Structure formats: C-alpha cells, structure tokens
From TrEMBL, chain A:
Identification of the protein by name: Acyl-CoA dehydrogenase
Membrane-crossing residue ranges in chain numbering: none
Keyword Flavoprotein applies: yes
Record organism: Acidocella aquatica
Family from the record: Belongs to the acyl-CoA dehydrogenase family.
Entry-linked InterPro entries: AcylCo_DH-like_C (IPR036250), AcylCo_DH/oxidase_C (IPR009075), AcylCoA_DH/ox_N (IPR013786), AcylCoA_DH/ox_N_sf (IPR037069), AcylCoA_DH/oxidase_NM_dom_sf (IPR009100)
This protein's UniProt keywords: FAD, Flavoprotein, Oxidoreductase
UniProt domain Acyl-CoA dehydrogenase/oxidase C-terminal: residue ranges: 189-326
Domain annotation Acyl-CoA dehydrogenase/oxidase N-terminal: ranges: 6-84
Cofactor(s), names only, from the UniProt record: FAD
Superkingdom field: Bacteria
Keyword Oxidoreductase recorded: yes
UniProtKB/TrEMBL annotation, chain B:
Domain Acyl-CoA dehydrogenase/oxidase C-terminal span(s) in chain numbering: 230-380
Family to which this protein belongs: Belongs to the acyl-CoA dehydrogenase family.
Name recorded for this polypeptide: Acyl-CoA dehydrogenase
Organism in which the protein naturally occurs: Acidocella aquatica
Coiled-coil intervals: none
Length: 354, 385
C-alpha cells in the first residue's frame, strides 16, 4: 500500500505542467480566440514531442507503455491552464480504446504520435473537435466504427466555452469501418479525465482569486486580509483537497473494472465537479463585479468546469453508480480499496437492497 | 502508487482482527464521562490492550509499542473500529502528549511517563484553554513561577476533556510578566496535587465530559517541564499538529459510522424518500474521501514528509463530515430522534449522543474559524488581518 506518486511520475508531470503553464496563458487563449485558432500548432508540437498523447500506448505502438496514475497529474495540469487542444481525451480515453480494438487500422500508432482522433460516445450527445480530427470513433449499437473525417458530415453547436468545439455528426456504418465491439471502460476513463481536469480548473480559480485578493484594496487594506474573504477561499480549498485524492485513487483502481472501481470513478467525478463548481463561484465572488466580466480570466475556467461537470455522465448518473455499489458491496474500513473487494473472502455485503 | 495491501499487511490485519475478536468486552462499557466506575472500566481496557502490545502500535518496542509505520497504524485503527472496541479514554495522552514527549521529552521523562501512559496507569487530560484564552491561546494567564527546583502553578484552566476523573494533565503556563508567545512553558502536573481543584462541567445532555481546573499554588518539580523554558508555545503547536492532522481522528471512525448509517437507512428504507439514500451516499463518499486523503498523507509521512497546513484542512473536513453524518442519522430516525435510549446494542450507533458530540468538533482542537485563517494564510498566502 503506497498512495503516492513516484519520483518519475512527479518529474514527468512537472515537466508537462511547466510547459503548459508557460505556453497556455490566459493572454495566449485570448489571442487564439482573436485568430479563430482551434489549436496552437507550436504547443501541439511540444505536446507530441514530449510523447504525451502516447503515454498510455504500448511501446510497440510508439507509446510509453505507462498507466493512468502516470498521466492523471498531466490531465490536472491541462485543466489548470484551460488547455484548448484535445490532449486529455486523446491520451486518456482514445488511445486506450484504440489499444483494445481488434482492428484499429494503424490509428493507435497515429494517435500515440499526436494525430487527432475524436470520439462520439453515447454518454455525450455531441462529438468534440470533429473539425480538426483525422478520424472519429463512433458507435453503432454495440459496434464501434473508426471513420475517417472525410466520410463524416458535421454541424457545429456553439458551447458557452468557446474552446469546446462540439458537433453533431452524420455518417454511414459499413463493414470497412467496423473496428470492434463494446466500449469497455471508455465511459469511466472519460469521467476520470473530466474529473482530473476539474481539479486543475478549481485550483486555477482559487489561485486567480487569491492573487486578486492580495492586490485589491478596500477600506485601506487588501481584501484578502479580511476573514470573510479568507474563509470563502479556505472553504473552497478544503473541498478540492478532499476531491483530489479520490481522483488519484480512481486512476489507480479504474483498470480493475469492478463495481468498486467504477464507483470510485463516479465519486471522483462528483467530488471534482462540486469542488470545481464551488471554486469557480468563489472566484467570481472574490473578484466582485469584475468576476462577471469577459475582461477577467475566471470565465475561461468556470465555463470549462461547467461543461465538464456534465460530460461523460451527469452527477446524477454517477450517484446511481454509488448507490449500486452500496447495495452490492460492503462498506466501512477494510472494504474501501477496490483490491480489498476482489473475491468473496473479504466480508459479506450488508444485506438487502439499498 | 500501489493501492493494494501487501501479504504482510493483510497478515497483520488478520492478527489484529483475531485479537480484537477474542478480547473486546462483550457489551458496551459504561460511559467514562458519567461515573468513576465507567472511567475505571475503560482504564482496564487500556491495560488489556497494553498487555497485548496493542496500546500504542506506533510507539517503539522498548516502550511497549510495535514500532509500526503509519499504514499499519491505519490498518490497526480500521480493525479497532470495525470490532467496535471502546473509545480510548487516554486519547489525549497516547495520541497527543505521547508523540510530543517523544520529540521534546528528556530521557528520564520518557522512561517514567510513557510506560505508565501506555499501561493506563496515568490517564491524561489537556489543560490549555482558559476562560479568557480560547482561540487566542497565546492569551493564557495561568503562571508557572520558578522557585528553586520547583514551579508554582497558579491560575484557571477550562474545557479539559476527561479531567473529571483523569490522573494527570499537561498544562500551558507562562512566566509571570511574560506576554503572548514568549515565556511559556508546558508543565505536567498530577490532578490530585495539593492546590488543584476540579469542577465538572455538564454538557447539554448532562454528561460530565469536561472540567474546570483551578490551580492555587500547586508545586511541581522543574523536571516536569516538557521542552525548554520559554518554548511552551512551540511545543504546544507541535502537539496541535498531531491533534488536528492525523492521530486524533483516524478515518476508520467515520467509515464505521457511515457503514452503520447505511444499515440504518436500509432498515428504514420503506418509509424514506429516495433523496435520503442520496444523502447517505454522500456521507459514505465523504468518509471514503477522508480515508483516501489520510492514506495519501501517511504514505507521504512514511517517505519522510512532514505535516503542514493540511492538518487544518483535515480538521475542518472531519468535523463537518461528522455533523453531516450524524444529522442524516437523526433525520432517518425522524420523530424518534429526540428519544433518549439506553446504551445501544453492539453494532448500532447512538445517533443522538454522536450528534451532540459532533457539534463540538468544529470547536475543539482549534476552532474551524482559526483553521480557515491558517489555510488562507499559510497555504494560500493571503495577508494576515
């Protein structure tokens, strides 16, 4: 039992985080909007040269052969900067899905190398980034089809978050596009990736508000010296502190795929969503009227958090998973970690439906 | 990162479980906050634990402990709470004073006090707060006046948990004329020493859960000072870190409470709205989140890390979780929530008693308002007011 990141994990995460924080500033985001850029080519080159899209791909497909705990901190960092590029879903959701398909037409190696593949999963009504993707993973009943972009027509639906480019797609399944059956743990991976980003988004909102509260003066003092403001921010930080370890545990436990593991992912998504939501609302409050404006940067992070809260399963759907877990599996100490609940030798469930 | 117990850790769990099953009292012990008899019954349990070397599992073996790391401490605590073993009457000694004494005590103090603490020979109370010094602890006025190789203690302490029946107290005093954080000393004194008067304070439910302590020229040897002269504040803050941050409230306590809440909900489900199930689920999630945060913290401490301001985030979280959890229990009981019950059967919770106790959580061990200041200033870097 060791619930900590290794030195290697911390080093990789820090390097990626430094690059993202340096290049993906709010000023850079504003510039992208002015130029109507969907992605920043220089940053995407950086991201692919660091091998980030292929972190979870096997080495024979050109990947790094790593696991979710290796990537989870990078997903957090992507949230922290409000990253417009589709790194998190590509590396954390699509590459593992491609790796499990019987026939991925070579796209596993392409995606690992940073060529953009996107996904239309039943949990989400729309497909993100269809315009910049080279291929799409789309569902047809239980079948998964891998369709190149030129075989798809798509229609943009505007999101409140201008960096979330969402599309409805029309396409025709065929034997040639059929790539496999069953989504496996794709929805759980999507939920976990959203949760990790929301941790980063929440922390960014608090950090922005803290910087402002140190600077902004009222009644002759920085507003951050007043307890009323301090306590708002401390409360938001506490909520984040008790969502983050759930996200990290979910990254370690998800591959087990058991009900306990899926419930941990559900908990992570709920907790991170609520923490990001509180942090964003707190930031708006601390910034005062300025918090409502386009000029202040908080909205970039608030909007992303708002969108991700409902992506890959709503909180209500995830709560239903928690209730399933409480019905079927024992609770309490020694029945917490998913590895404790493998097999029947670890205590009988509390009897009766929840 | 490896969220799986090793074979050795699982064997350790089995060993604790077997001992607990063979040794825990068959029924609940009488409260240690009402009668001397109940207090002494809990002292006997401490002796029994110590006899099995289960009293202080993280302490070094020479002191009767097992020298275990913090992951095994968590496993021990999980099995302790899972078994429904009695509340530790000496918790202020073993969890707060003990670790502080190991860090700041002299060899003589450790050799004398720690084995007696472990054996339940001395049950300890904390004597820090005063009528005029609560959150502003640096405002204590009780004095320790040096007189040769003795201190003469004078003043008034309050809100000392279990001090009605306890044997010893560790108190915060100051040199006459000193101010604020300077000139403080932490002094150990027997609660039956000449000049000590204890006045029980009844909680809202009538239990004598704490006492006022009046010190009227109480003489104790200078050898009873813990840490250096003038270092009392520093020593106290080290204790407070353990108290809020980790040892006082291990996660198993809340995981067991959540488990009991689930059972209560299932037993009453027929006449409850579905929204109650969601509240129970939220309480369970909070208990799990706390456990995960503590596992992460213990992993970090095992690797040589230290406790920082996260002791304040922990304290806020467990105290608020405890209220939410017990409140759900009362809400499920509905019109029966107000009814006083005899001691509940083993495995059940006394939700009313637990709720009333939980109300004190945001106050003791440093009020949550002060903890929020600490988070804002030391974690977020906001300016002092």
């Amino acid at each position: 039992m060791e619930f900590a990141f290794t030195d290697d994990q911390q080093t990789i995460t820090q390097a990626a985080r430094d690059m993202l924080v340096e290049t993906c500033t709010p000023a850079a985001l504003r510039k992208m909007l002015e130029k109507h850029e969907a992605l920043n080519a220089a940053r995407w080159t950086n991201i692919t040269e660091m091998g980030l899209p292929g972190m979870l791909a096997p080495e024979e497909a050109g990947g790094l052969g790593l696991g979710l705990p290796d990537f989870i901190g990078i997903a957090e960092a992507a949230g922290y900067v409000g990253l417009p590029e589709p790194l998190v879903e590509l590396a954390g959701v699509i590459v593992p899905l491609l790796g499990g398909l019987e026939d991925h037409h070579g796209w596993l190696a392409h995606a690992a190398a940073g060529r953009i593949v996107t996904i239309g999963h039943p949990a989400n009504p729309l497909v993100a980034d269809a315009d910049i993707a080279e291929a799409l993973l789309l569902g047809h009943g239980h079948e998964i089809h891998l369709v190149e972009r030129n075989a798809v027509t798509f229609l943009r639906h505007e999101s409140v978050d201008p960096f979330r480019r969402l599309f409805s797609v029309e396409w025709t399944p065929s034997a040639a596009t059929h790539a496999g059956n069953g989504w496996g743990l794709t929805a759980e991976r999507g939920a976990l990736m959203a949760a990790a980003q929301m941790i980063g988004l929440g922390q960014r909102c608090i950090d922005l508000a803290v910087a402002y509260a140190k600077d902004r003066q009222q009644f002759g003092k920085p507003i951050g010296s007043y307890q009323a403001v301090k306590h708002l921010l401390a409360t938001a930080q506490v909520k984040l502190e008790f969502a983050r370890p759930v996200v990290h545990a979910a990254a370690a436990e998800l591959p087990l795929g058991t009900l306990a593991a899926r419930a941990r992912v559900a908990h992570a998504k709920i907790a991170a969503g609520e923490a990001a939501d509180l942090a964003a609302r707190t930031a708006v409050q601390v910034f005062g009227a300025m918090g409502m404006t386009w000029e202040v940067d908080v909205h970039f992070f608030l909007k992303r958090a708002l969108a991700l809260k409902f992506a890959w399963g709503t909180p209500e759907m995830h709560r239903a998973t928690i209730l399933d877990r409480l019905t079927a599996l024992p609770g309490g100490p020694a029945a917490s970690f998913a590895t404790d609940l493998l097999g029947s030798a670890h205590g009988s469930p509390i009897q009766g439906p929840f | 990162m490896k969220l799986e117990f090793t074979a050795e850790q699982r064997a350790f769990r089995a060993e604790v479980r077997a001992w607990m099953e063979a040794n825990i009292p068959t029924g609940p012990l009488p409260s240690f906050d009402l009668t001397r008899e109940g207090f002494e019954a809990h002292r006997l349990w401490e002796r029994k634990l110590n006899g099995g070397r289960w009293g202080m599992v993280t302490w070094p073996e020479v002191l009767g402990g097992r020298g275990l790391d913090l992951i095994r401490w968590l496993i021990f605590e999980e099995e302790y709470y899972r078994a429904g073993a009695p509340v530790r009457v000496n918790q202020n000694g073993i969890f707060l004073l003990g670790p502080t004494m190991m860090e700041f005590g002299t060899d003589e103090q450790k050799a004398h006090f720690l084995p007696r603490m472990a054996a339940g020979d001395d049950i300890w109370a904390q004597a820090w707060s005063e009528p005029g010094a609560g959150s502003d602890l640096a405002g204590v006025r009780a004095t320790a006046t040096r007189d040769g190789d003795h201190y003469v203690l004078k003043g008034q302490k309050i809100w000392s948990s279990r001090a009605v029946f306890a044997d010893w107290a560790f108190g915060l005093f100051r040199a006459p004329g000193s101010e604020r954080h300077k000139g403080m000393v932490l002094v150990l004194f027997p609660l039956d020493a000449p000049g000590v008067t204890r006045r029980p304070i009844a909680r809202m439910d009538g239990k004598l859960v704490f006492a006022e302590i009046f010190l009227d020229d109480v003489r104790v040897p200078v050898a009873n000072r813990l840490g250096d002269e003038g270092q009392g504040w520093h020593v106290c803050m080290a204790t407070a870190g353990f108290e809020r941050g980790l040892l006082l409230r291990s996660p198993a306590r809340y995981q067991v409470a959540a488990r009991k809440l689930i059972a209560l909900y299932k037993a009453n489900k027929a006449h409850l709205p579905a929204s109650m199930g969601e509240r129970v689920a939220q309480n369970w999630m909070d208990a799990e989140a706390y456990a995960l945060a503590i596992y992460a913290m213990c992993s970090r401490l095992n690797a040589g890390g230290t406790i920082g301001p996260e002791s304040s985030t922990n304290k806020i979280f467990w105290s608020e979780m405890d209220i939410a959890l017990t409140q759900t229990g009362l809400d499920i009981l509905g019109p029966n929530a107000e009814l006083l019950t005899e001691a509940p059967a083993t495995g059940d919770a006394d939700w009313l008693e637990d709720y009333i106790f939980a109300l004190s959580g945001p106050i003791y061990a440093g009020s949550n308002e002060i903890q929020r200041n600490i988070i804002a200033e030391r974690m977020l870097g906001l300016p002092r007011g």
